[in-house]
Amino acid sequence: METTALTSPGSFKADLYALHLRLRPLQPGTLMPFSGELVHGAWLEWLRGAAPDVSARLHEGNKRRLFTCSSLQFPLPPAQVREAERNNRHLPLSPEKTYTIRITLLLGELFPHFYKALIQFNHLSGNLRRSPFMQIGRQVFLLEEVIASPDDPARWTGFTTFHGLAEQAALLQPARCERMTLEFDSLTTFNWINTRNKVYGNYYALLPLPRYLFPGLAKRWQELVAQEPETRELAALVQPELIEEYILDDGIVIDDYDLRPHQVHFSTHVQPGFIGRCVYRLRGPDPPSAPAPSPATRLSLTVRQQLWLLAYLAFYCGVGYKTPMGMGRVRPL
Q1: CATH number, span 162-332
Q2: What is residue 17's predicted lDDT score, i.e. its pLDDT?
Q3: Among candidates 216, 248, 238, which has minimal Cα distance to 321?
Q4: pLDDT for res 129
Q5: Is CB count within 10 Å lower at the N or C end of the chain?
Q6: Quick one: which of 295, 230, 233, 309 has its CA closest to 15?
Q7: How would CATH label the architecture of 2-147?
Q8: Mind listing the pLDDT tens digit for each residue in 73-93?
Q9: In the chain, where does the domain assigned CATH 3.30.70.1900 lie?
Q10: Residue 3: pLDDT above 60?
Q11: DSSP secondary-structure letter at 62?
Q12: Crossing angle for the helix pair 52-60 and 36-50, nearest 10 degrees?
C-alpha cells in the first residue's frame, strides 16, 4: 500500500480528515452507479473487523454523524456517470483500473485508530495490494493507496484543525468575503420542515438556498467543536442567531448558478436532489453586533467570516441529507 501524506498520527494532530482510498477490483464485474449506501455498509464492516474501537465510537456518535462516505467514483466522464445514476444502469468494473472512495473523519481521535488498523492490516496481510480489503455489494476490492495530502490534484483531500479553519476565516478581508462559490459534487438535498407551522409536513428542498445551508452548518460546528475540551470554546466563534438574521435580511443572496436537477437510486427509493455550482454574494456592511472574541483563540469573526468558516467546514462534513451515504459532498472554490 502506498500512502500519500498519510503520516504517523504523532506528527500532527488534526480534528478533521478527508481521505481518498484508491481501490482496484479483484475481478471484472459491474456495480450500481451510485453506491453510497453500499460503501457506507462496507466501510463500517471493515472497521468492525480491523478497528472495533473506531467502529464502536462511530456507533456511539451515530446521531452526530462523525464520518462521511462517498459513492464509489468511477474513472469515467462525469456526464456518463450522471446519466447512469439517473437510470440506475450498472457500470463496468475492471481490474486494470482504479476506483476511489472518499472518507472524511470528523473526530480527531478517530484517525490514529484508523492509521493503526491500516498498518496492522498491512502487516497481517503481508501485502495490501494482494489481499482483499473491502467488499462493496458483491464486488471485492484491493487497497492501492490512501491519499490525505491537501496538495493532491483532485483537491478533495486534506486535514486541518478547528483552530486552523477559524484562523483561515479570520484572515479574510471584506473584499474577499463578498463572493462565495460552492460546488455540489454529489446529489444534494435538504430534508426540511417548516418549524413555524408543521401542518404540511417535511419535504426535500431542491435548491441550495442560504436558509437551508448555513443554519445547519452552524449547528454542526457547535456539535463538532464540543466533542473535545480543548475546542469547546470555539463554539462562540459562530453565532447562529446572527447568521439567521443576516440571511433573513437578505445579506446573502444567490448571484449566479449552474445547477441541475438529479436523482440517484437507493435500495428502497429514488432520491431527488440537485448537483452543480452556486455563487453567493455576501453583502456588506456586516451587522453591527460583532461577535465576542473566543477565549481560546482571541479571534473575533464578522458574520461574513463566519459564513466562510462554515463553508470551509462543509468540505469535511458535507451538507444536507444522508452525508454518511454519499450525498451532499461540497467544496468552496
Answers
A1: 3.30.70.1900
A2: 97
A3: 216
A4: 56
A5: C
A6: 230
A7: 2-Layer Sandwich (3.30)
A8: 999 999 999 999 999 999 999
A9: 162-332
A10: no
A11: G
A12: 130
**Which residue is listed with cell 503520516?**
7
- Cell for 292? 465576542
Q: CA dist 289 to 93, 245, 292, Å?
A: 55, 11, 9
Q: Are 101 and 70 in contact (CB under 8 A)?
A: yes
Q: What is the pLDDT of residue 283?
A: 96
Alpha carbon separation from 178 to 161, 242, 243, 251 (Å, rounded) = 25, 17, 15, 10
Helix (H) or strand (E) holding 25: strand 16-25
b or e along 66-99 (b: 16 or more beta carbons within 10 Å of the residue's beta carbon)?
A: bbbbbbbbbeeeeeebbebbbeeeebebeeeeeb
- Where does the chain hold its CATH 3.30.70.1890 domain(s)? 2-147
C-alpha cell at 138: 458483491
What values do phi and psi take at 136, rounded to 5? -110, 110
Q: String of b and e for 155-188 (b: at least 16 CB within 10 Å)? A: ebbbbbbbbebbeebbebeeeebeebbbebbbbb
SS3 for 10?
A: coil
